[in-house]
Structure formats: C-alpha cells, structure tokens
Amino acid sequence: MRPFAFVLGLVLLLTAVSAQAQPVAGPASGQVAFGPQRTERIEAELVPMSQWVAPGSTTVVAVRQKIAPGWHTYWRNPGDSGGATSLTWTLPQGVTADPILWPLPSRQRLMSLMNYGYSGEVLLPVPIHAPASARPGEILTLTTDALFLVCSDQMCVPQPMTLSLALPVRDGAAPLARPWGAQIERLIETAPRPAGIEARLTAQGGRLTLTATGGPLADGDVGQAYFFPYDGDRIDHAAAQTGQVGPDGLTLILAPGKRGADAALSGVLATDKGAWEIKAVPGPPLPGAQGRGGLSPLADADARPAGGGVWTFVQALGLALLGGLVLNLMPCVFPVLAMKAASLSAAAHDPRRARRDGLAFTGGVLVSFLALAGGLLALRAAGQAIGWGFQLQSPGVVATLALVMLLVGLNLSGVFHVGAGLQSAGSGPLSRLPGAAGAFFTGVLAVVVAAPCTAPFMAAALGAALVLAWPLALAVFLMLGLGLALPYLAVSLSPGLLARLPRPGAWMARLKGVLAFPMYGAALWLVWVFTKQGGVDALGLLLTAALMLAFAAWLAGLAQDARQNRRRPAMAALCATVAGALAVGLAGVAAGAARTADAGPRSESGALDAQPWSAAAVAEATSAGRPVLVNLTADWCVTCKINERAALSSPRVAQAMKQANAVYLVGDWTRRDDAITRELQAHGRSGVPLYLVYRPGRAEPDILPQLLTEGVVIDALKP
Length: 719
What we know:
38% of the residues lie in helices and 21% in strands. It is of the alpha+beta class.
C-alpha cells in the first residue's frame, strides 16, 4: 500500500545568502540560501563528498538529514504508509543529477503496519555530472527543492525546504571534503547494487517463495536476511519473512500483496554479509537455495514496537468522535439542523418512524463521510495537494449546493411536495417530511455543508487520519460522522425524549414555513461564495438558473395539485421538465465560467490591513524583526468569517498589531491553492481556519485556537 504519494514540493524563498559562496553559474533569479535549514523536527543541508569537481567529471553531493528524536523520514518505498523524500533540482546549464542512491533503511513498525525509513542522522547521496565545458574557477550553484515527510508515532508533517550548495570547479582529482566526504564515500561503496545474483519468484499455496543464488551468496554463509521491495504493493510488508539457507544461496517466504507474483519483483536483499539489488523473475524455485538450515530475521535496532501506535489510533478515534459532536454547534450546520428539527417533530409520536429516520440519517452521514474521505485519500495517493473541505473549492459543487438548498426551502414553503403521495390524507402534505430516503438525504447534506468547517478536536483527528494507512483513516472518518449524527440518533431511539415533543398538528405547517428561511439563507450564502470564486458574470448565470429552477418547482407543485384533483397536468409537467433542464444547463455554464474566471486579489475589510500570505512574505517580515499574524481562511468557512468579524476586525486587535509592529497576512483557500494546502499540512491540519503567530528568531509559529476572541489574539501578539 502506498496511500500517500505526496506532492512534489513547496518552494520556500529564504533571504540569507552565504558570504563565502558567490554563485557565478546557476540559477539567476531570487536569492539562494546556503547551509543548514532547520525546523523543530528536522535539519537538512546539501553537503559535498569532494572539495571540488573537475570539468567533465562526476562527483557526489548528499542531502544530510538530522532528524529529531522520535521522528523519522522514509525510504524510496515507504512501506504501508508515508511518503519518500523527493528532490526537484535547479542546476546550471549542462549539469545533471542522478536519482538518489538510497542507503539501506530501517524497519519501523506501527500497529499492524510496517514502514521503511530513517531516524537520527542520514545522508542521501546523489551523483552530480559536471559538463566538459565547465571552466576552472567557476562556482556551480546546485539547488534542490526537497520535500521530507517527517513522522512520529502520532502525526506526520510534510516539511518542504530549499537547499543549496556552491561547488567549485577546478582541474585535477579532488580530495574528500570535511566533515562528510569520508562518510559519503563509504555509503557509495556499500550502497546496494547488482552483484550477479540470480533470483526467482514462485507463487504457491497463498505465499511467495523468493529464491536467490550465485554471486556473493554462493558460499552459503548467510545467517540473517530480509527483503525490501521497491514497489509498495507486491508483498505484505508487515508479515514475517522466514527462510532457509542452501549451498548456493537462500530462500525467503513472503506474504503476497495486491499484485503478488504477476511480474518481476525488484528490491534489496539485505543480509548479515551485505546488501544487494536483485530482480526476481517469475519461475520455479532455483536449486541450491535451501537445505543447510533456517534463516533468522535480519536484526534492525530501529524496528519499533506496536504499542504506541495503538494508543495513537485510539486517541484519533476519540478526538474524531468529540469533533463530530462539536460540529453540531458550528454555524455551517445550522441550516441542516432546521431540517432535522422538522423531521423530529413530525415523528415525535411515531417511534417506529423515528427509529427508521434516525438510522437513515445516520446512514447518510456515514456514507457521505466515507465518500468524501475516500475521494480525499484517493486524490492524495495520486499526488494532489488537497485538504478537508475541498469540495467547496469547486464552483460547480457550490452552484449545485446553492440550487439544492433553494429546492429544499421551496419544498418546506409548500411550493411543491416531496413524497406527498405517501402521506395520509388526514394529515395533509405538509405534516411530514419525506421518509427514510429524505432522512438519508438530510444526512448527506449535513456532511457536505458541515465538512468545510473544522471544529475543535476535529483538526487533530483529521490530521492523524490523513497520514494513517487508508483502512485506519477511514475508521477515523467514520467515527467523526458518528459524532455528527449521534445527537439525532440518540433522540430518535429514545421514546422518553420523543414523548416530550408536542403532538403533530397545524403548528407543524407553520414550523416548516419558518424553517424554510434558514435554507434560503444557506442558498444566499453559497451564492455569495460562488460570486467570490467566479465573479459577477458567472453570478448572473447562476441567478438565472435559480430563477428557472424556482419556476420549475412551482410548475411541479401545480402538477401535483392537479393530480390530487384527478386531472392530467401534461402541460405543467412538460414545462416543469423543460424549465428544470434549462436550470441545470445554465448552472453548468455558470460553473464553467467561474472556473475560467480570474481569482483576483483578495480584499479585506475591517480594522486590520491585510496582505496576501506567502512563505516568502513571512520570511521577509520576520527577517526584518517584525512578528507575523497569519490567517488561513476561506469564504465558504462560516467559522472563519465569525472569527474575522468578532476578533480580527476589532479596534483593540488593530491597536495591538500596531504596538507590536506586526504584519497581518491572509491566505485565501476559497479556491484551490496548493501552497496553502501544504502549509496546513505542515502544521498537522487538513482544513481552515488556521491562525499562526510567527516571531523573529523562531522557526516555528504559535498556533492559535480555532475559535478566536479579542483577548486570545492580543495575548498572542505580546512579546
């Protein structure tokens, strides 16, 4: 499994230029940062093996990682979860870089998962080829945008860094550079490479048999072995590897993964005598690979016990349940609460129907959470930089939701009736909401509208879920959905609580009419978000679509009334169908116009003078000795807007910002922005809002609560 093939990297523009390294060949735009780059989790830099490089020759540089205790990074195949370190090079003309020569990883166990990676200090060597046209006396500036996925037993943080090295060009053989040259040379000499080993892969009895003979294995003097595959889906990484040694080689028994033995299996065969690259082709076992006794698992001092991971998973489940419960109190969910209240009232004295609706609503919530989470994890596995709430970054989704909210409001207002034919004549069409299907749909709406607002406790749970293996991640998302549905489910299954609600009557029709207005308000809010995404031209198309949809709903209501009076409303039904089709078409055109519209600069009203967020803007302000308040927000996040009105726009906060000489930066996530997504991920979050306070001289910011007050912001700005 490789659920997390993370994004290619985030370029951080840093302003410090080494006084000893003057680049005369290499990137010409922007400033280059030399030397180690640090965060609280990892320190990284480019270090050379040799003191210089000769024209037309090859040298080696290495990405040195110094990883904080309790954290780790990953090998080329991260195993059951995680993501390999990636390097994107910017090199002078004619200079080329080979792939990483990966050192042998350690095994890192997390519950039932097995990952491959590095802890402590590690060097990742990369061969660099200088062109013959390079002139002695030049300085070749090598720059790489590195993306490290730095993980602990509790969370993972994508850590992007821009690393640079000034490499002189001189004639003649270069001596080893200090202090890392000798260590890099040893890594190159001992790096796994082909060694004339013949290997076969045989599928039999639900297991894979890997036989390897010849080369350094021919003397049969191997006591320990372990196979690290290059592909993540060929074997079960967490399963034990047992085997035997023979006079000409060895045999390993592996548990198959998704693909099994359908193709050649490449990887590293690590033993107590050395490690070599092999390629096992499908076929019968090789002779001479067993018969001299059993093999022991290769010792690995860094292999991790499973206990801590179980507690991490349990914590994530608990936080998800709390987050789902608190999500019921968030402003995003208020319009859907109106539908839930109407449904509860209608079924107050019909326990059987109440149970059915409660279970259907819960089913809608859970299925929707699974669908959203599955889409998010699938896109993340495909390398997309997205986060929780990504569905409202699409103008098409926003337009669809706005029209759905309008339809729900019109239904509650009695313009047309859903499921009227199933209702008893005595109670009338307004006395009930639709049945189980309607309750299920209400659950779907609750998730789609509520998901973009990240409630307290929810951020940590989502952050953990998005770095766990996909089965565990889906379990966390399901627990989050259960928390959202739990209050409604508990009431629907409790006859004592239902009995306290008033009996159905004429008051229900008036209640439904009142509850229609929160739905109209939600539709207006979504239209406003759509305007922010697509501009006024797209807005005009969407409003026309809404008008046609309302007309279609009115015609559908006329047709329903005619059918109840035993008439055939052919013309009304036909016109309703045509108007509905026109509304759908216009909505599609509006969404297309919004997608192609320029986003335009964000303008902030209020007491604070906002500037657009970027990593370069943060670095520039802190290097000038100024603190920075960062607000990562979105127009569709109601919680963000409440915080901005209640705390971030007050005169007292503006005065505190002025006294602190602070800079206010706003990152707008209303439309998709991969840089903001990576910034959220870097702080263990998957959605907005996120509030950060950077201070000069400190690499890591303070993270403010998701529900802000004036006092919280003012205290955070104090030195």
